[in-house]
Amino acid sequence: MFQILICEDHLEDIKHLSHLIHDAFAQENISYHLTILNEKSGLDFKNYDLIFLDIQLTSYNGIQLGHLIRRQCPKIPIIITSLYAEYLQQGYLIEAKRYLLKPISFLDFQRVFYDVILGDCKQQKALTDLRISPYKIYS
């Protein structure tokens, strides 16, 4: 199952992105689990296959959060979502795979889905065996 984390605090953006994710994964018949970052989900990113990261979060600074993600998980694809194009350069600092401007269009999301999710993510071979480690083990 594909594990996805959405780091977003605006309800309408969460709903919209969740809908785009659902439609794309359903079309390809890929099972997934979606988690929304909150106080309960904590700041442990090791079990995710993909992270959507908003730059302007109420509780966190998106770029600082991106650096934390990179320290824990250098290989996890990060897709930045933002209303502002001026944060594009900062996305390079955290090695984001893509940058989606809000509101995210279906066509833009589809491009990211096929390039990053079906391309990069499926090529990463990993397994999870809780007897060995609570985290994904990459080959």
Automatic annotation (TrEMBL):
What the entry lists under PROSITE patterns is as follows:
RESPONSE_REGULATORY
Please provide the Gene Ontology terms (biological process) for this protein.
Answer: phosphorelay signal transduction system
UniProt keyword annotations, A-Z: Phosphoprotein
Q: Does the keyword Phosphoprotein feature in the UniProt annotation?
A: yes
Taxonomically, the superkingdom here is Bacteria
InterPro entries the UniProt entry points to: CheY-like_superfamily (IPR011006), Sig_transdc_resp-reg_receiver (IPR001789)
Q: Which residues carry this modification: 4-aspartylphosphate?
A: D54
Q: Where is the Response regulatory domain?
A: 3-117
- Its recorded name reads Response regulator
Organism (species) = Faecalicoccus pleomorphus
